[in-house]
Specification:
With 394 residues, the chain is α+β, with helices and mostly antiparallel strands. It is built from eleven helices and 20 strands. The longest helix has 13 residues. The protein is elongated and about 80 Å long.
């Protein structure tokens, strides 16, 4: 490529002959400065329809100048969306470009200045790892457009903060983001070993490695249709998976960024995967267990059922009379292999509202409770608290 800024755009597509023409037309309509070099990577996942043919036809009909470069990286055999997405991310990371993005074949940019608007904040501030724009949602079946609604905290912030992204996917889909390639390469490379790598996960990691500039304009269209890759179910547990991939990705984040945004990640897990992570330790100071006398603690799953909880009880009042542990609220569950350790000493846990059955504690209530049998002497000076065991939600 010539001197000047360079952008690598990977077209991710599979059997999207109905939509791919519009996607490519709008991409090639981008108005760029003369020193901007654009490399398009065609990453078709072995479509069985005319998707690939349409891409080539549209490009060949355009009188593109020497600033545009086309490379075909299509698969000969279908890999499936998760593997193909990871392959595309690797291509971006190795592209040598300044900036990169993934444009999904059923989406399109409605502004001819999409690239310009995204590149401006990245050019102006090196601490920005990526840029993001508001989404215009298009329902294919009802033929209706609507701007995605964002909470006030997102509307009023110049940046999508990591705690915002941990809570929900406010950065939207891949097609509405432009990445700084050097920042993309700063992410722990093992993230690509996860079974499932999506926009929420990648963009959260990017937010942890720099600022996410928020462009408050709906300049890209996210198409909702029955054949869509996501179709509203991107965060549902995948059939046949041993463990929900959201739990796997949250564990990865916790391992590489311990304790970061755990409350927001717990909210994301419960909302999208229906897997609660938030529990509470109640402490009685002589007036009984009360909601205002509780400490939030968070489950971290090591696999589909085994979990750990770690908390610092030194912050509790000195006059605690009794302790109670509520693993979660809102779900009946079975638990087994439970073990509690306080300052290196194992303490007994008594299930207050569960029934022992076949080596399990069965909770038919949606508020399982354990009473922690802490010796009085140990209660006077408490520090590190650890719980682990297995849980299965009903």
């Amino acid at each position: 490529m010539k001197s000047g800024k360079s952008v690598c755009i990977a077209i991710s597509c599979y059997n999207q002959e109905k939509y791919i023409g519009q996607c490519i037309e709008h991409l090639l309509a981008q108005q760029l400065e003369s020193n901007i070099q654009v490399k398009i990577l065609i990453c078709d996942d072995a479509s069985t329809d005319r998707t690939k043919e349409i891409i080539v036809d549209v490009i060949e009909k355009k009188d593109l100048n020497g600033n545009w470069h086309i490379e075909d990286h299509s698969n000969r055999q279908n890999m499936g969306m998760p593997k193909n997405t990871k392959r595309i991310i690797r291509l971006l990371m190795d592209s040598g470009a300044d900036y990169g993005c993934i444009l999904e074949g059923d989406d399109y940019w409605i502004s001819p200045f999409w690239l310009k608007k995204h590149m401006e904040p990245l050019d102006e501030e090196h601490g920005i790892s990526m840029s993001n724009n508001y989404l215009l949602l298009y329902n294919q079946e009802s033929n209706c457009f609507a701007v995605r609604q964002y909470p006030v905290k997102v509307q009023e912030s110049k940046y999508i903060l990591p705690e915002m992204q941990a809570e929900d996917n406010y950065t939207g889909n891949f097609s509405s983001n432009l990445y700084r390639i050097s920042s993309l390469n700063e992410i722990p490379q093992s993230f690509l070993e996860q079974p499932y790598v999506d926009d929420w996960f990648v963009n959260l990691l990017m937010a942890m490695h720099g600022k996410v500039a928020s462009i408050k304009e709906p300049i890209s269209v996210y198409r909702i249709h029955p054949e869509g890759v996501w179709n509203g179910n991107q965060n549902v547990s995948e059939e046949g998976q041993e463990e929900n991939t959201i739990s796997q990705r949250i564990r990865f984040i916790h391992q590489h960024y311990p304790g970061k945004y755990i409350a927001e990640l717990a909210a994301f897990s419960e909302h999208w995967a229906k897997i609660p992570m938030r529990g509470k330790i109640y402490y009685d100071i002589g007036t009984g267990f009360k909601e205002e006398q509780s400490l939030a603690v968070y489950i971290m799953f090591e696999n589909k059922s085994h979990f750990t909880v770690d908390a610092d009880l030194s912050i509790l009042p000195k006059r605690v009379k009794a302790l109670r542990y509520d693993p979660e609220e809102g779900y009946a569950c079975d638990m087994w292999g439970m073990q509690a350790i306080l300052d290196g000493i194992e303490i007994e846990m008594t299930a207050e509202n569960g029934i022992e059955k076949n080596d399990r504690i069965v909770f038919d209530t949606k508020d399982p409770i354990f009473i922690l049998q802490v010796p009085r002497k140990q209660m006077k000076r408490m520090g590190s608290f650890h719980v682990e065991g297995d849980i299965e939600f009903k």
